[in-house]
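Please, structure for the following, as C-alpha cells.
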Amino acid sequence: MHDSNNLELGIIGNCHSTALISKKGSIDWCCLPEFDSPSVFGKILDDNIGGTFEIICDNNYIIEQKYLKNTCILVTKFSSGKNIFEIHDFMPRYLKKDNKYYSPAEVIRYFKLISGSPKFKINYDPRLEYSSCVTDTFIKDEFIVSITRETNYDSLYLYTNFDKKSVVENSEIILKSDGYFSICYNEKIKPQSLNEVFSELTRTHIYWLNWCSITPSFSEYENDIIRSAMTLKLLTYDKTGAILAAATTSIPETVGEVRNWDYRFCWIRDASMVIRVVHELGHKNVIRRYLEYIINLIPDKGENFQIMYGINREKELTEKTLNHLSGYKNSKPVRIGNAAFNQQQNDIYGVLMDIIYTEVKLFSDVEDQHEQLWSITKNVAWVINDKWMTPDKGIWEFRGEDQHFTFSKVLCWVAIDRAIKVAELFKKDKKNKKWILLRDRIKKDIFFKGWNKKKRAFTQSYNSSDLDASVLLMEPYGFISANDPKYISTVHAIEKELSNDGLLYRYKNEDDFGLPSSSFTVCTFWFIDALNKIGERQKAKKLFDKLLSYSNHLGLFSEDLDFKTKELLGNFPQAYSHLALIETAMNLNKTKS
C-alpha cells in the first residue's frame, strides 16, 4: 500500500449516510441525517473549521486500523506497551422483528479495553451546517448537545458513559472498562447504556456477515471483491434504492486546481455497470430497488431524461460554492450541488435501454410495469432516431463545445439494440424491421467516422485523431467482439498513447481545464479488463496487482490517482472505481486457465 496516500480514511455507514474515519481514528467527514445533508464533521474540507471527533493520545501509542472480517465495522487499535484499547466504529444496521431495517442517523464508537490503563483525551468538535455558522455545545443530564441557530436551526446529540465534562473540556480520560460514544442526529427516547450499544454492535456485525455470505466465493481476489462489494452497499440509499457516485464533495482531481465536484448524487450512466456487477454478486434486492428508483424517475413522453438525479429523486441540483471553507488541501472552491445535471449527453439513452432490457429479462413477473416500459422503449427509439446524429457533451461532461463523441454514438447503438431485444421479449416484431435498419445505420456510421486508419483505432470523436479510454467499453456493451482486429488494435493504440506507468489518461487532448495530471482509476480497470479479454491475461493480471497496491490501507479507492506520487485524489470512496475493480477481478477469475 502506498505511503504517499493522503485519503487514508475508512468508511462506515448504514445505507442512509456514511462517516469517514482517519487512520488515526478521527471522524473527519460525516453528513447527517442523510448522505447529502450538510456535514456535521467536515475536517477533510477545512483543517481548521471543518469539525472533527479526535482521540488524542501521547506519541508512545502505535495506531493500527482494519475492518472486522466481512463487515463494515472499522477497528482502530491504540497500543503503548501494556496499555491497549480498540475503537470499534460503526453505524447501526440490522433487521428488526417486523422485518424492517433499523438504520438510525447515528455513529457509534465502542471503546474496548484490551489491557492496562490507557489514557487519552477527546477533541469533540462538531460544526453543523457545513460549519457555516457557530456551533454551541452544552452539557445536559442525559447527553451533550450541539446547536446552531444562525442560518438554519440544527442539533446533534452525544451520548456516552464517559464523564461528559472531561469530554467537552478535553481533559484526560483513563480507560478502566469498556465505554462508548453515540453521536445521534435525533434525541433518544430510550436511555442509552453500554449493554444496549454492545447489542447494536453485535447485531450490526451479524448483519454484515449475513450480507457477505450471499456473495459467491472466488479463487482469486476474493477479499478485494468482497470489500469493494461492501463499499458499494454503503453507497446505496435505502429509502429510494439510489446508488451514490461517492460519499464526499469537492475532493479535487488535482490538488490546487478547481476540478472539485459534489458526487453525493446518482449518475444514471453508472447504472448499467452497477446492475451487471451486482447481478453476478447475487444481490438481487439491490438491483430490484435500483431499477425501481430509475424507472420511477423516467419522465413523461416528451420530457428529457437527465444524466443524474438527487438520491431522493430530486431533479434540480443547483450548484453553490461554500466560500468559507478552505477546501481539501486548500483546493478551492468547495461545491455543493452539481451543474452537470442539465447537460445533454446522448449516451444516457443507451444506459436507460440497457437497464430496461435487464429489468424485463430478470423480473418477468412485474407485468404491471411492462406497458410503461414498452412505452418508454418506443419513446427512446423515437428520440434516438431523432438525436443520434447530433453532437453532445460526452461521457466526460466537457463543459465546452458539443462534439460527435464516439462513445455517445456507441451508446445510441446500444439503445436501439436493447429496444430490439425488448421488442422480441414482448413479441412486438413489427417495430423491429425499422429499428434493425437504424441499428445497422448507426454501426456503419461509427465504423466509418469513428475509426482512424492512421491510428488503427476508434477515436474520441468523429474524424479526430485523439484517443479516449471510453471506447474500450464498446466490447462490454456488445457493440464489437473482443477478437475483432479493430478492437484489438484499438486496445493497443490506447495503451501506447494513454498509458503512463500502467495508469491511464482518460484522454490527452486539452479539455476545458488543460491536461490532467491524474489518472481516472476506472479507465485503468477498463484497460486491464480489455487486455484480459483480448487474450493478454498475464499482462492484465500483472497490471491489476500493481493497481490494487495503490489502494489505501483498507483497500479503498477514490476517483483518481496522481501519475507521479500515486496519491489517491477525487471523491472517495468512488463507486465507479470499485464496480470496475469487481468486474475486472471476476473476469480474471473466469479466464483463469
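The two ends are 28 Å apart (CA to CA). The chain has two domains: 9-213, 215-590.
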